[in-house]
Write a structure and sequence with these properties.
The structure is a single chain. The chain has 27 helices and 39 strands. It is an alpha/beta fold. α17 (about 575-590) runs parallel beside α18. The protein starts with 14 loop residues before the first strand and ends in a 17-residue tail after the last strand.
């Protein structure tokens, strides 16, 4: 008998999921305590659905049925339920079967699967979500195939199976459709899963940003306080739907009276109309009752402005976790707590459910997400000052539920958003974020300013051990424009929102100040751009002169972008409006290239350039304008390079199954949670060899005679090395002797090493055969708890380590990824014939990186690999040393079934 409190209960199977319509449900194992829920659920199912499930009329569940469907061993018999509140809305179960179709136990690897979804919830994607989760459970329990019998008329269920993307067989037998699904994930099944995830999460955000009706809970009669401020912003923004105010202190019988000009009620329960979004501004201790009222009323989402949660300490963190659990139990989503609010400027919505103290933004093409309310206010103010509008704004506060990942899913398909700006204090799940950002960046720019090197109070997210430089490299790999400050975030966003992406790095510079022109020129060089000689129009230049010069620069094939510099005119008759009109006319006549304006003390020009439909961004310093142009150039280059995605090559000599068996054997004596096992050199070499990575043999040399025997076995010339930890990979300390051509040279070198550095017991000397000379490199892979597997590359040696000249890519790496990886370090010219040296065999190096990527992607048990040094010669390469660390596989949430984070 299994209950949720029993040790055998698989609590890690519990998960919150977003359904197709944007609502949420909880998936969990069915226990013996669910008998009453199961019977109540079955009573809600139509006779037709019951017939499809049992192939015969089955109006009610017998006691035997109830016992069977609630008693599971969670190995050979498993049942999962999708729940909203405490009620079942769908169930799925599997029973392991043998070749004869009868009940069986392991090693039988096939199971019969069956679903039942309440009619009122069909079409919401409940069965698809259940299939993903029961499939993951089955794989965990050693089941490789599902078998299902479906009546031909049950087209909805047949579609659930056929649309899942798994390899499958379909036959018609004895009046029913027999389906067999191979549960091994495929590229197609993963694509289907992620497409469903995107649509569901985008829809869940849309329900928050485009509600049909809104209630503000916690509005004071005095007009003071957070709730009243949010209500005024909603009212003044011209929200298009019904608006309600809730004030618990109102006298009974006063429902419907006006408060701030809005109908007011004592409780949300008293509102006799649908409410899609509730803005909650009551003290934290009263929020649970408000959430319960919202859930019972059918509210779709909450914006919780209330503080007193994770940011206030451990007790508040407990309240925050309970808040998320309660909100999701009703199928709702949550922005906050401790949020600033949300804004949607779409004319048909007009939503300003925020505490922003300035006028509401005008409609624009920028989407803005922040985790900090203070930074959100600063960004809104900066955009307003520079005449830029927004499509949407979300300030998520403690981001206990809805996060930047959800907003990216929404922006990806939002036609009103052309540029995504994000201020992030934490990434949460970097692996998923970079995946979503890469897809979004392929169609619109994603600009990120990441604050703080620590996790703010209230943000309960998985920590990452990756240094900031690595995180930045991974973001850039995904096409994200990473900036350092909120000022840069606005600067880059303004350019991308109003200007086309440049086709290259060639920049024309023109203006009425020679000095400002050369400052701009130098800034371009510093940013890696290719500026032309500045064109000085002199201080006597008129607006018409500016217009003609800009038109000529835009028409020229020699330029990809133009920076216009302007200082106040000598001519008193000139005006900022005249100059703005001249520049706009030139841009309109020659579209297709970005233009940025650098001005000195010309605030009127900034305003004039931002007023019309043809807007041109203006900057008070050359460095800021050039930084924005440079980031746009880099983004454009990324778009062109990634127009065709790379692929992960297949290698026929890879032994995936043998590697899995060997890892299982090596880990058999290691308990789950016992830490990491570093393999012996022989085991590491054997494991790598299964993936075509050959490590040069190394023989121990505890004495001079042993060194000679080792050299004779390997063949002269040889190398003699120390492997003591303090000397390993430190040729600069004298612990390596190379090109020892015979016994005499070897014995002499052995005596020098032991005489200079210590006894053989301290030095742990070894002998290796010499390999062709080349460039010494280091290849690594490490599993980060948040980002997953990361592949790293750099040159060997103290200089590279000291300067941090290492590049990174997320695994699995494609052929394009590894080609970019080895070319992205600053010392890359050493690989390609620097100063007349011979270029090394970079194709062999790329193949090594791809093979290592495959190893760690196929086998998450391999949590760390270091190949150092890897000597890359003009033909081929040699791996001289390898360290491999393994552990029981960590959770890889981004590759499992769809699930909302649970912190």
């Amino acid at each position: 008998m299994t209950t949720a409190s029993d040790p055998s209960y698989p609590a890690h199977w519990e998960a919150d999921v977003v359904l197709r319509d944007g609502g949420t449900a909880r998936i969990r194992p069915i226990t013996t305590e669910d008998a009453g829920r199961l019977v109540g659920f079955y009573d809600q199912v139509s006779d037709e659905s019951k017939y499809y499930r049992f192939f015969a009329p089955h109006p009610r569940l017998s006691d035997r049925d109830v016992h069977r469907f609630t008693h599971h061993d969670y190995v050979d018999r498993v049942g999962l339920a999708a729940t909203v509140g405490e009620e079942f809305i769908g169930t799925v179960r599997y029973d392991r079967i043998g070749p004869d179709g009868r009940p069986a136990s392991a090693p039988a690897d096939e199971a019969e699967v069956a679903f039942l979804v309440q009619d009122a919830h069909q079409g919401r994607g409940v069965a698809s979500a259940l299939l993903e989760h029961i499939g993951a459970v089955a794989r965990e329990r050693g089941i490789r195939r599902f078998a299902a019998e479906v009546l031909p008329a049950n087209t909805k269920m047949i579609k659930v199976f056929t649309d899942a993307g798994y390899q499958q067989k379909r036959t018609f037998e004895d009046g029913s459709v027999h389906l067999t699904l191979d549960l091994e994930p495929t590229a197609e099944s993963l694509a289907v899963q992620r497409a469903r995830e995107q649509r569901a999460e985008a829809r869940s955000v849309q329900r928050l940003l485009a509600p049909g009706s809104v209630a503000v809970v916690g509005v004071s009669r005095s007009g003071a306080g957070v709730g009243a401020a949010a209500l005024r912003n909603l009212r003044d923004s011209g929200f298009r739907g019904p608006l309600h105010a809730v004030n618990e202190a109102r006298a009974p019988g006063a429902e419907g009276d006006l408060l701030e000009g809005v109908p007011a009620y004592r409780s949300l329960r008293d509102i006799d109309a649908p409410v899609d979004l509730a803005v909650v501004a009551v003290p934290a201790e009263r929020v649970p009752q408000v959430v319960a009222d919202c859930g019972e009323h059918g509210v779709q989402g909450l914006v919780v402005l209330s503080a007193g949660y994770g940011e206030s300490g451990p007790a508040g963190l407990g309240r925050q976790r309970e808040l998320v659990r309660q909100v999701r139990s009703y199928g709702m989503r949550l922005i906050g707590p401790n949020a600033l609010g949300v804004i949607n400027t779409a004319p048909e919505v007009g939503l300003n459910a925020s505490l922003a103290p300035m006028p509401a933004p005008v409609p624009g093409r920028i989407g803005l997400f922040t985790q900090s309310g203070a930074i959100g206010i600063a960004l809104l103010s900066a955009l307003l000052r520079r005449g830029e509008g927004l499509s949407s704004f979300v300030s998520a506060g403690n981001r206990a539920d809805v996060s930047g990942n959800d907003i990216l899913q929404y922006w990806y398909e939002d036609e009103a958003t052309d540029v995504a700006l994000m201020y992030l204090e934490t990434l949460g799940n970097p692996r998923k974020f970079t995946r979503l950002a890469r897809r979004t960046a392929a169609v619109k720019p994603v600009v990120v300013a990441k604050g703080g090197r620590h996790t703010p109070a209230g943000h309960v997210v998985p920590g990452t051990r990756l240094p900031e430089t690595t995180v930045s490299a991974l973001l850039r790999q995904a096409g994200v424009i990473r900036v350092d400050t909120v000022t840069e975030l606005v600067d880059v966003g303004l350019l991308l929102a109003s200007q086309p992406v440049p086709a290259g790095p060639r920049v024309a510079i023109l203006g009425n100040s020679e000095s400002l022109g050369f400052l701009t020129y130098d800034a371009c060089l510093a940013r890696g751009l290719r500026p032309g000689a500045p064109l000085d129009l002199t201080t006597a230049a008129s607006a018409a002169d500016f217009g003609r010069a800009l038109a000529a620069a835009l028409a020229s094939d020699a330029h990809d972008a133009v920076v216009v510099t302007a200082i106040p005119w000598v001519n008193e008759g000139a005006s900022a409006d005249d100059l703005a009109d001249a520049l706009r006319d030139a841009v309109s006549a020659h579209p297709g290239k970005p233009v940025a304006v650098v001005h000195v003390e010309l605030a009127e020009l900034v305003e004039s350039l931002s007023r019309a439909d043809v807007r041109i961004p203006a900057y008070p310093a050359a460095e800021r304008a050039v930084r924005a142009v440079a980031e746009a150039v880099r983004y454009g280059q990324w778009r062109r390079v990634n127009a065709e995605s790379g692929h992960v090559p297949e290698y026929e000599d890879i032994d995936e199954a043998g590697t899995a068996d060997r890892l299982a054997g090596l880990l058999a004596e290691v308990g789950v949670g016992d830490g990491v096992l570093t393999l012996a050199e022989a085991d590491a070499a054997a494991l790598l060899a299964r993936y075509g990575i050959r490590v040069l043999p190394t023989l121990p040399a505890p004495t001079a005679d042993a060194a000679v025997k080792a050299a004779e076995a390997l063949g002269y010339p040889v190398a003699l090395k120390t492997t003591a930890p303090h000397l390993r990979h430190r040729a600069d300390l004298g612990g390596v002797r190379l090109d020892l051509a015979g016994e005499a040279a070897l014995r002499r070198a052995y005596g020098e090493l032991t005489g200079l550095l210590g006894s053989p017991a301290e030095l742990l000397p070894v002998v290796q055969a010499m390999v062709p000379r080349g460039v010494d490199t280091v290849v690594r892979s490490v599993i980060d708890p948040a980002a997953g597997a990361v592949l790293s590359f750099g040159l060997a040696g103290v200089a590279s380590e000291l300067l941090g000249d290492t590049a990174h890519r997320i695994v699995p790496a494609t052929d394009r990824d590894v080609a970019g990886l080895i070319r992205s370090i600053r010392a890359a010219p050493l690989l390609f014939g620097w100063r007349g040296s011979d270029p090394v065999d970079t194709p062999a190096l790329e193949e090594l990186l791809l093979r290592l990527s495959r190893l760690v992607d196929d086998h998450p048990e391999v949590v760390g690999v270091t190949l150092e040094p890897v000597v890359v010669a003009t033909e081929g390469l040699s791996v001289l040393s390898a360290v491999v660390r393994i552990a029981h596989p960590p959770a890889r949430t981004d590759l499992g079934p769809r699930t909302l984070p649970s912190y």
